[in-house]
Specification:
This protein is α+β, with helices and mostly antiparallel strands and 150 residues long. It folds into two domains: 2-75; 91-149, no CATH class. Helix content is 49%, strand content 23%. Strands 3-4-2-1-6-5 form a six-stranded mixed beta sheet. Strand 1 and strand 2 (97-102) form a beta hairpin. It has helices at 2-36, 43-75, 123-128, and strands at residues 91-94, 97-102, 106-110, 113-119, 136-139, 142-149. Residues 36-47 have a biased composition (Basic and acidic residues). Residues 27-47 are annotated as: Disordered. This is 3-oxoacyl-ACP synthase.
Length: 150
């Protein structure tokens, strides 16, 4: 089962790496556009364009910073061992879906099954933390029963 955790961890890592690559691409694109932009006789138009490119670069930097935070959080999570209670790094199977408690990375498909990669700080992750097999919790009017904690 540790193999399952390792594979889900790897998929989350690939998700974060892709986010980082996209952010870096956006920053490079904005920098390249700014370098190619030449000042025209319409000074205000030039300044507006440069400001828009700077804002685009700033958004890319913010996305890169967030992706780095996700990577740091992901690197703190152990894929070894099995726990009896839900904690960071746990794979949780419920009557309403499977979850990997790590970082918010959306749906991960592995070996024909879907897992929702969620943060422990997310609303459902928060309610799930500390649960053990046969515990119940409710989220958005939906009742979840913990069937297995890996």
């Amino acid at each position: 089962m540790n193999n399952l955790k390792q594979q889900l961890h790897q998929l989350c890592s690939e998700f974060v790496q892709q986010r980082m690559a996209n952010a870096q691409q956006a920053i490079q694109s904005a920098e390249q556009s700014a370098a190619e932009d030449t000042k025209s006789s319409a000074g205000d138009k030039y300044e507006t364009g440069r400001e828009m490119l700077q804002q685009e670069k700033d958004r890319g930097m913010a996305q890169l910073t967030e992706a780095n935070k996700l990577l740091v959080a992901l690197n703190r999570i152990s894929t070894a061992g099995k726990s009896t209670r839900v904690e960071e790094g746990s794979v949780v199977k419920t009557n309403n879906g499977n979850f990997y408690i790590a970082v918010s990375a959306g749906v991960l498909n592995l070996a024909g099954e879907s897992y929702f990669a969620i943060s422990a700080a997310s609303p459902i992750g928060y309610k799930m933390m500390g649960c053990k097999v046969d515990d119940w919790f409710e989220q958005n009017g939906k009742k979840y029963r913990v069937l297995e904690v890996i």
